[in-house]
Amino acid sequence: MTTKAYRAALLHSVADPAEVGVEKSYQYFEDGILVVEDGKVARLGHAADLLPQLGGVEVVEYRDALITPGFIDTHIHYPQTGMIASYGEQLLDWLNTYTFPTEKQFADPAHAADVAGIFLKELLRNGTTTALVFGTVHPQSVDAFFDAAGKLDLRMIAGKVMMDRNAPDYLTDTAESSYRDSKALIERWHGKGRLLYAVTPRFAPTSTPEQLDAAARLLKEHPGVYMHTHLSENRKEIEWVKELFPERSGYLDVYDHHGLLGARSVFAHGVHLCDGECQRLAETDSAVAFCPTSNLFLGSGLFDLAKLEKHKVKVGLGTDVGAGTSFSQLQSLNEAYKVMQLQGIKLDPFKSLYLATLGGARALELQDKVGSFTQGNEADFVVLDYKATPLMAYRMQQARSLEERLFALIMLGDDRTVRETFAHGRSVHRRG
Ligand code: GUN
Ligand code: ZN
């Protein structure tokens, strides 16, 4: 058995502030110890209590640092890494102008392997240890991703895009081939180590009803597999869905009609949902990924977190790179704060922490594995540096409470703030 202990300030969410209030939503140890045994969280507590009991266990100490669970990104596209920050379009033009030509290159397994490596390094540099990831239509894009993530022993979920219409010929499959290819990928990767599979129809406009049925069949035949798609992101997109599916009552109803809602279904965006749709998402225990940098960048709109909270819909935080403009969940929370300010609502820093960690884990039904320091959870955690930049160091000198430090960390933090990242108890990134 390998045991190691980590000493710093420790903070993790234990509940949703919307359910229990802010004060009861987190646990904090100003001078804390996290004990990791064989890649799992063994104990957590005050240094004064735990140190005398540790015997010969090695204790790694970090000064001016805060240890939190690794961040969870509930929506991201690895093939879009190289097209992040592409200028000037809204969703549908952005897809045609930048996205489809970029994704074409993933027919080449060597290219896919290169980008998967760059992408995972970038996630870990930013403290993200779990993500729900889009591949491209090419099965080899998913093989490359899982191969790289498996070598790092990461808890990752991904899937092959299913897309059989309204996209260039070079990027389309068919209902039948998408079923066959997805099935083979599920059999190869789902449950292998910490890897999990997501059935991934791109969004309603690029799938025929037959393909959505094929997606539902995959879910039924493989319990435990995820469903990952986009929903109600952009006004023109929503109008297009109405034209393509005139017999359905709305965008969500397209997915609902085909049996794609459920506890492991994650819908990215949901910027323009009505009350009825929120209610249906909650009834089916489906989750929504809030992607603030992407929604601002593509001009999609302001995510109504309060409405989803009112209906008790599970919500996680997503970067949605490459429409999102940062891999950093701290930067995403910075933008989320501003999205809420524009709606006259304050996003509490402990709610922000929840969204990026335990809330994400719950959205992905992984709360018994990651997202908090509950005993027995997989030891995925980050060491955040309160003094990452001269400005942060100076700002922290003025801060008088944990709440104030956490908020400043979120607003000023980015990849420079992540001193070290651990996955399954192993160091997978150390800042140079
Ligand atoms: N809707 C369909 N495809 C995409 C995509 O790649 N990115 C975003 N943000 N929305 C989409
Ligand atoms: Zn997306």
UniProtKB/TrEMBL annotation:
EC number, as in UniProt: 3.5.4.3
Family matches, as NCBIfam families: guan_deamin (TIGR02967), PRK09228.1 (NF006679)
The keyword Zinc appears for this protein: yes
Domain (Amidohydrolase-related): residue spans on this chain: 67-428
Annotated protein name in UniProt: Guanine deaminase
Cofactor(s) this protein cannot do without: Zn(2+)
One of the GO biological process terms: guanine catabolic process
Job description of the protein: Catalyzes the hydrolytic deamination of guanine, producing xanthine and ammonia.
Principal EC category: hydrolase
Cofactor mode of binding and number, as noted: Binds 1 zinc ion per subunit.
Keyword annotations from UniProtKB, A to Z: Hydrolase, Metal-binding, Zinc
Protein's organism: Pseudomonas knackmussii (strain DSM 6978 / CCUG 54928 / LMG 23759 / B13)
Alphabetized CDD domains for the sequence: GDEase (cd01303)
Pathway: Purine metabolism; guanine degradation; xanthine from guanine: step 1/1
GO cellular component terms given for this protein: cytosol
Catalysed reaction, written as an equation: guanine + H2O + H(+) = xanthine + NH4(+)
MF terms in GO: guanine deaminase activity; zinc ion binding
Lineage: superkingdom: Bacteria
Family: Belongs to the metallo-dependent hydrolases superfamily. ATZ/TRZ family.
